[in-house]
Design brief:
Helices cover 29% and strands 25% of the residues. It has helices at residues 23-36, 43-60, 103-110, 160-171; strands at residues 2-4, 11-17, 65-73, 76-83, 113-119, 122-130, 179-180. Helix 1 packs antiparallel against helix 2 and helix 2 (43-60) runs antiparallel to helix 3. The model is unreliable at 4-8, 142-164, 166-170 and 173-179 (pLDDT under 50). The protein contains four helices and seven strands, in the order E-E-H-H-E-E-H-E-E-H-E. The chain is an alpha+beta fold. It has one domain: Histidine kinase-like ATPase, C-terminal domain (Heat Shock Protein 90, 2-Layer Sandwich), CATH 3.30.565.10. Strand 1 (2-4) and strand 2 form a beta hairpin. It starts with a strand and ends with a strand. It has a seven-stranded antiparallel beta sheet with strand order 1-2-3-4-6-5-7.
Amino acid sequence: MHPTADHSPKRYEQHLQARPEVLASVRQAIRARLDAWGLSDLADPTTLCLTELLVNVGKHTGSTECLLTLHHHGDRIRATVSDTASALPVMREPDFLAESGRGLFLIERTAHAWGAALTSTGKEVWFELRIRPPQPEPNKKRPADRGTGRRGTSTELVGADDMSDLIRAKRAGTPQWGCSS
């Protein structure tokens, strides 16, 4: 595992072997980078989605070697995992009694957009998370709130009630290679 950063503070790359024993240190590195960018509130959803992508590298590609890239693009972050396999991921209806098989489902429900693309050396699987605007202090209301007390929403993890909605949407023809919400 060799983390590197280019001269831009808005990009992070890490070449690694996506093996279970390195996932904790990868999550720590990503949390540290997001914290340095002032985006620590995105650490949980980012590390959840990245862990799912990295586990898939080991399970489905025949090689654990991959490149993880994290970009901070203005109002969003984009994480990409590139590997040497040419088979694109396919989201399946999750079996909620099985121990695995829900990774892309979790990414779809957590990320604002995700997808996969073939490259000259294999494929890239990516997801994006939007960056929330800073929230006012609890006792201060912004003019746009007009006294309603409403605040911006954060990225939320999927709940059991949301799963049935996603399955219905999937059956109705949601693209298998990615989505955007």
